[in-house]
Amino acid sequence: MTSRIKAEARLDTLFRQRTNFSEIALFNANFAIIFVVQDFSSETQMHPIHIAAFISSHGFGHASRLSAIIESVTWKNPAVKISIFTETPRWVFEDSLSCPFAYQKARTDVGIVQLTPIEMDIPGTLRKLETFIAELPLNADMIAEKLRKEAVDFVVADISPLGIVSANRAGIPVLLLENFTWDWIYEPFSRKYPRFTEISAAMKRIFESASIHGQYLPACVPSESCDFELPPVSRKPRTSADAVRQRLGVRPDEKLAIVAMGGIPAEYRTLERIRSAYPDVVFAFTGIFPEMSRKNNVLQIPHHSDFFHPDLVQAADFVFGKVGYSTYSEIYNLQKPFAYLIRSDFRESSVLKEALTALPSAFEIDQLSFNNFVFDPWLEKMASCAKNPVATNGCDIAADNILYFIRSGKPRPVLSPCALDGLRRSSN
User: Fold this and answer.
1) Under CATH, what is the fold of the domain 3-235+394-408?
2) 293-295: strand order across its sheet
3) Residue 31 DSSP one-character state
4) I want to staple 231 with a disulfide (CB 3.0 to 4.6 A). Which of 57, 66, 394, 418 is the partner?
């Protein structure tokens, strides 16, 4: 019996044990939330849904978007138990999730070894991949045993090969969520390093073995066989923009610009220019400094701080930063003007650039201007931008699909065929 057949058999048993979902309305003084929870029988009370999430540690974007989905899943069904496997630091999930979760540090993939937020180390990536692939069978066997022992019902993999292989070996249904997969990223490297040809083929086979497949839009390689598509997924703000600006010390007559370079450290050597050139704009640099500090109009905010990153983006008048899926999604969902820097050597960047060109409030900034903080033309353009239409955050759609799939064994059709046309790209 193949792993996929075993997973389907396990799933069939699983959803036949489940009872119907019921809608519960919760109200408080400020808002009303309608969400879906599960009506448990005595049998299912002894066996609540247990979801294991395997998350890539390439930057913080994969953790951010899957955290948004996990948060939505547990709001809709508070009985869901969550286990997280990743090398992304535990505090990222503590900051992002209101639900309890188990955490296990595990190398779920290699991704790309980064020298800086922009520069890649391809030979270093290849060395780590060789080790990862050699150890994958043994590591997957150990993780599979853990999944069985802890009665995991369903696995979600945000482009983690370890998660898919482990779930298949345990006979547990596994959902692949992606806007790209590592085989597609590694493919071009084979021209200089032929070993990547074999590695890419092996990775592709792993990703194709998932029980169900969801794509974040815009997808780098649109798949006709994917089971559902998602509008951009991002974590939701928790605090009002006014409250965040007040905590940051931003005056009503000042503008706030967020400078975001993702989860990879960077160095800035010319901050003095910002202090002198833009006295009416407060620039908040996120994620690159060890401590919180402010000097004149320059704020330095570490990754792990008292400020939730979506709150900072919501409070901002402008955003500058490196293009990555997580940043793109926050910009898209929070309707923020964005001056973006393209990583020309990373394959995903061209797809995100194509998506950004469709946003009237997004503008590409060149590397030289960014490095020297020559922001004048982009500040002027962004200041005149009108807001885009309010978007639908894909995290809630993803949560609905996960819960529906666990109950029924099939994806839930949520959006009309034309609802996402503006985010879809041709596969050619």
Assistant:
1) Rossmann fold (3.40.50)
2) 293-295, 298-301, 281-286, 255-260, 318-322, 338-341, 362-364
3) -
4) 394
- Residue pair 247/223 in contact (Cβ under 8 Å)? The answer is no
Three-state DSSP state, 76: helix
284 and 302 Cβ atoms separated by less than 8 Å: no
User: CA 9 to CA 5: how far, in whole Å?
Assistant: 6
CA 58-172-407 angle, 5° bins: 105
Question: Tokens 């793109």 label which residue?
Answer: 328
Which region among 4-8, 88-92, 370-374 has the lowest average model confidence (pLDDT)?
4-8
Q: How far apart are CA 95 and CA 239, in angstroms?
A: 13
pLDDT > 60? residue 43: no
E-only strand ranges, 93-138: 102-105
Classify domain 241-383 at the CATH superfamily level: Glycogen Phosphorylase B; (3.40.50.2000)
Phi and psi angles of residue 298, each rounded to the nearest 5 degrees, phi first = -115, 120
What proportion of the chain, given as a percentage, has pLDDT over 70?
A: 81
Angstrom distance (rounded) from CA 201 to CA 49 = 34
Tell me, what amino acid is at 93?
A: F
Q: What single-letter amino acid sits at 121?
A: D
Q: How far is CA 145 from the centre of its chain?
A: 27
- Do the bridges between strand 255-260 and strand 281-286 make them parallel or antiparallel, or are there none, so unpaired? parallel
Distance CA 311, CA 212 (A): 33
Which residue type sits at 164? I
Q: Are 293 and 300 in contact (CB under 8 A)?
A: yes
- Read off the pLDDT of residues 288-307 as tens digits, 9 standing for 90 and up: 666 787 888 888 888 788 89
Name the token pair of 324: 């990555």
Residue 375: left (phi > 0), alpha (psi -120 to 50), or beta?
alpha
- pLDDT class for 270, splitting at 50, 70, 90? low
Tell me if 220 sits within 8 A of 214, measured CB to CB. Answer: no
Q: Rounded to 5 degrees, what are φ and ψ at 35?
A: -140, 170
Token couple for 7: 């997973």
- Of 377, 373, 370, 241, give the one whose Cα is nearest residue 297: 373
**Cα–Cα distance, 342 to 367 (Å, whole number):** 8
State the Cα–Cα distance between residues 195 and 153, nearest whole angstrom. 36
DSSP β-bridge partners for residue 21: 38
Pairing, β 298-301 against β 293-295: antiparallel
SS3 202: helix
Task: Parse the chain into domains and list their residue ranges.
Answer: 3-235+394-408, 241-383
Q: Are 326 and 393 in contact (CB under 8 A)?
A: no
CB atoms within 10 A of CB 174: 27
